[in-house]
Each structure stands twice: as C-alpha cells, then as structure tokens.
Amino acid sequence: MELLCLLGALLAFGAMVLEALRSSMVFTCLWALYLSLYQVGQVFLYFQWDSLLLETGFLAILVAPLNLFGRKSPSKQHDSITFWLLRWLLFRLMFASGVVKLTSRCPTWWGLTAVTYHYETQCIPTPLAWYAHQLPVWFQKLSVVGTFVIEIAVSFLFFAPLRRLRLGAFYLQVLLQVLIIVTGNYNFFNLLTIMLCFSLLDDEAVSSWLGRGKRKKAKAGWPETLLSWAAVLVELGVYALIIYGAKVYFQLDINWKNKSVSSKTAFTYHEFNHFLKMVTPPSIWIGVLSLTWEVVTAMFRCACVRGFFWKLWATVQWAIFATAAAGMFALSVVPFTFIEYEANSNIWPAVRQAYEAVDGYQLVNSYGLFRRMTGVGGRPEVVIEGSMDKVTWTEIEFMFKPGNVSGPPVVAPHQPRLDWQMWFAALGPHAQSPWFTSLVHRLLQGKKDVIALVQPESQYPFTREPPAFIRASLYKYWFTEASEDGSLPQQWWRRKYVEEFYPTVHLGDPTLEKLLSELGVKDKGPILQTPDAPVPQALRLVREHVQGLSGPLVLWSLFATGVAICLLKVLFSGSSKPASAEPKSKRPKDPPAASSDRKEHREEARPDRKDNSEERAADSDRSPRKRK
C-alpha cells in the first residue's frame, strides 16, 4: 500500500510539473492505483469524495490527450464531447446534494437551522468555523436558503445556451465551495469540485483571466446589437425568476427595523416530492439534448477538416469518443435517478444490467452530501484514556480531531482518516466500528505505526512504555460563546461527560479477546518480517524521513515545490523566447491540413507579375495605329 501511494504521488506530481505526463496513459495508472487502494481501504476510504475522485479520474482518461512517444497531441475535434461529461458529473453532484437534504426529512434542513449546528458538529472544523458559529440566526437560515438555491436551481444553468448564465453559475458554485473550505476541513473534496466547475468555462473566459482576451470589434451591426440586448434581458429575467422563486418558496422578508431577513419553508414534503417527479425526467432529457448538441457540433468540425486522410481520422475519433460519452451518460442515469424512485424504475433493463456489471469499478456513482445533520443536541466525541495503575488516567490526544478543549486546526487538503472514523464511531456503539477494538489493542501493544496515526512520538504520553489499561468515554462538545465585551474566549470548546463508550481493558483481558474474536480482527498468526530487498529498504528509508512530518505539511510542501517549478519554467521560457522565437516567426510552419492551400497563397502573392505579362502580350498584338 505504501508503494502504491508513493507511485501515485510521484505520477501526480510529475503530471503537475511536466506537460508530457498529462496524458491518458498516466491518468489510467493513477485511476488504477487509487481504485486498488479504495478496495483494500474499505471503510477508511468509503467516502463520497473517494468515489468522486475515481469517477473524475476515469473521465480524465477520456479528456486527456494520448501523447504517445512523447509527442504533444494537439486539440481534437471531439474534445468538447468528453469535456461535457465533467459538466454532467458536476450537475449530478450538486443537484443530488441539494435534493437529498430535503428528501431525508431532516428537521434542521426543513427548518433552515442546519447551519446553526453544522459549524460545531462537522468532523474537523477550522478556526473560522468558530467565528461563523457566532453569526446571528437569521443569517444562518439565509445561508441555508442560499445553499438550496445554488445547489438545486443554479445547477440547471450549467446547460444554458447563454455563456454569461454559465459563467454566473460558475462563480456561484465556486463561492459556495470556498465558503465550505474556510469553515471546514473537507480534504480535497471542495478543490475537486472547483476543478469540475471549470467545465462551465470556455476559452474566452480563461483567456480573459490570463490577459489574452480578444480585442473588441470597432462597431457591431444592428442585428448583433439587438441580439446582445435580447440576451441581456433573458439573463436578467432568469436571475429575477430565481430570486422571486426563493422569495416565494422560502418566504423571505426584509425587516428594515431590525436589519434582518426572516425566512421559512413554504412548501411541504409531498409538494417537493411532486416537484422532484416533474423535474427529474426533464433534467435527463436536458442532458440528452446538451450532449447531442456537442456531438453534432463536433461532427461538423470534423467535416471542416481539410484533407481526406485527416478528415477520416477525425471522424473515426469522433465516432469512438461520441459512443464512449453516450455510454457513460447512459450508465450515469441509473445512480442519478436514485433520488426519485419512479424515474429509476423506468430505466431500460439493459442499461441497469450494464451499470451493475461495472459498479465495482466506480465509473459512475450516486451522490448526496450532508443528507442529515448530526449532533443537534451536542457534538458526540470519543475520548481515549490510558493508565498504568488504573487510578491515574491520561487522555490520548489525536492530532486533528477535538479531544480536549484545544483549538481546531487547518488540515485540508489532507484527510486524517483515523480522526474522521473517530467522528463516525461516536455516532453509535463501539460494536458498529470493529476497527476501534483493533485500535485499542494496538495501543496496548505500543505499535509505533498506529501511534504515529494518533500523535507524533514526541507528544504521545506513553512513549517510554505502552499503557497497561485503556478505556474510552463519550462526551458532548459545544463551541464556546463569544464574550459580551467582544473579547475572544480562552478555550474553543466546552464539553460534558455522557457515558462510558468502551470498557476498561488490558492485554490478555477476556473481554478484549472475546471482542477481537467476534469482530474478526484478531491476529491470525505471526506478522511476516519485511525482507531486505531493495524496494522494502527504499520504502523503509522514505518512511523514516517522512514519518515525523504531518500530512498537511507534506502535501503543502509538494504543492509549493510544484508551483515553484512551474513558475521557474515560465520565467525561463519567457527569457529565452525573444531570442529564439523571432527568426522562426518569419516563416511559420503550415499545419498539415493547410498544405493544399500553399499554391493558392503563392499565386495570390504574385498578382502584379501575371497582370504585367498579360498587358505586354496585349500591347504587342495591337496595330501601330491603335498604339499611337
């Protein structure tokens, strides 16, 4: 597993800094490596963002160029077809995430009070989450309304024919993800979602960011001006309709006296289910029409390619990738319709069978984040304690999750998997988390690899000798309130003891041995010793150098190194460009498709010579009288 992780990290870092490695072959390797880790990691990797990463990684295989033999592959006519699949994935992710909040019948989402609990009950909050928790209740409820609008209503603008509507949807989606990033540690999920949002942009938008926008025309004709104003009116009408719908269905009312906005859900669960039945099938047909448009426009671009061979090659590629896109779209309809039973039951049996055949590869998945709000009565948290004499107990702190009343950290885009599982373990009895008994067993044994997941060795309280006894207690946590004078509190959390979570056990304890056997986590035999081969030795060397560093530090160091390398490449290419690029610009190389036009350009470049020869021939044929 360590070898797979290192290979994936090296390949991803290489693709970040080297354009030649951004090929479909590299993305195939990355997808296969992560799929292997996903299957073996089981509950520790069974998160929706792991499935999202696998699905996005498979689509990257279709989007990325092939780049065989180190040759740089130019853009193809079918690029818009495969790139559209990312937009459809973004729509399924956002629309389903908004819908499941209401179909779950969670009272906090229906009462628009979910965010008042979200900041302190999420897995690993950030320091800004404490400040966001102090905001007034009316603002928290308004933010829930904004979440519904962005995730459900704005998602349909992904397929709008007007580009400014798509750009508006892009900025709204990015705004939502940035707000989640600054208030919660959700690893790479929000960054990956922002990358999917780039499928809403076009070359003109990206060029304008880079300062390479096209020059505006001097003066447009009246038809173009009329169409431009009509598009602006349509866009304003769409935004006005969204704002009006939010006002009506959530009863938004501005209280100028109290400087607040009141909100309340104005529809019932059955009305929303009826709305979902009406919207889900048309949303699929919108996807069909949008994909058909991309396929047809790509076909016309193939027809415009010059040269019979190049036109045939472009058409073959178009047919292959259009078929692949249609197949991926058909498969994705099955998990997408999980949000509405009637639409799911109407899917063709052949499509359902195909989905079941490839379900294990995580090619297409169902999504629905933050379905229910947990910890409404207080954030449940498990605290592990160790003792040498069963009298004096010492808390075993984790690196990132709330344990004592210490402040929340910033760990994104790293995800401490054990800390996240501790949050899920607190939601039920320890029997629902078999790995917890194994964790207690390893801590009693003093396994260094497991201790490194909990705390650095220098900060672990039982460094010299493992604890003789271990127990776990369940607490309820709440954010502390801000002082009336505006000063910050000395502690971020306040907590209250609830009950015993795990009984006091020791090595050889009959209770512990029974639990290990029942849960199937007992050692079946002696652990095999690592051989002294070159690969294990290299892994051991890397582990010794990296183990003392935290996950966020390693990730940000890799990111900073990659950015520095990319900046140096840009600087060096910019400094060498004027000297080497000027002679080449005198005779630009024609593309293969334009080779048939060279003769026409050469003949057009010499019109004067041909005209002068015709004039001389005509003068010689004239009589002396006419010449005079």
From TrEMBL:
The protein here is known as Lipase maturation factor
Membrane-related topology note: Multi-pass membrane protein
| Function summary | Involved in the maturation of specific proteins in the endoplasmic reticulum.
| Species, as recorded | Anguilla anguilla (European freshwater eel)
List all membrane-crossing ranges: 46-69, 81-100, 138-158, 188-206, 226-246, 284-304, 316-339
Its family remark reads: Belongs to the lipase maturation factor family.
**GO BP term (any one):** protein maturation
Q: Which residues form a coiled coil?
A: none
